[in-house]
Design brief:
The structure is a single chain. Helices cover 8% and strands 58% of the residues. The chain is mainly beta and 238 residues long. It has one domain. A 14-stranded antiparallel sheet has the order 8-7-6-5-4-3-2-1-14-13-12-11-10-9, covered by helices on one side. Strand 11 and strand 12 form a beta hairpin. The longest helix is centred in the middle third of the chain and has 11 residues.
Length: 238
Amino acid sequence: MAHSTLKRFGLTASLTTAVVFTAALTGQAFAMSPFQASYQFSYNGKNVGSATRTLSHSGNNWTYVFAAKAAGIASATETSHFTFNNGKISSSSFSRTSKVLVHNNTMSIKFNPSSKTINTKKDDKARSFAWRSDVLDELNAELQIREDLKSSGLKSSYHLADAKEIESRRFVKSGTENVKTNYGTFSTIKVVMKHDKPGRETIFWLAPKLDYLPVKVTHVDKKSSYGLLLTGYKGTTH
């Protein structure tokens, strides 16, 4: 159960916590700036751990890391590498490691434009998919969505790579709401991720004051629920 919870906070948490900055802030080609955000992690309404998101870069090679710990018995780390040009993220690689007690799991994705393939490996199972230049991973998809919100608006769908497939996801704006966190109260835009499977619901509350950083995320999967709530942030504000 803990492993399932931490894993979904890849996109579902993972689609949670970076920050995008406009090029106008720096006058440079980059539209994103390094940041770090911390969160309280809850499961079925109880606080069980913490999580962080960290965005850094060297030139135009960007690294986005999500790390979480729950109740001292489970942990997970996800890392996305990508480049960013003209408002568009180009994926390079993604990896996930998770541990529950003494059990370890790994997953990786390699985006290979030269060979026109996207290769995935989960533990010992490897798969290969046809290349698409617009395919994102579970972490950098969040950054692309926020960048689109600040410019032309959300696309009708986004293509995401997982270990088993490349799937299409939809994100829909659903009004505004004030959200109280340990870091302050923020006016937010509510965005719902649409799931094909019944019994699932994922909602993100994005704060324009923090450049559309998700200050709250909730996910319901049938009888289980979990969430992230902002506790700290280092980066540019408006």
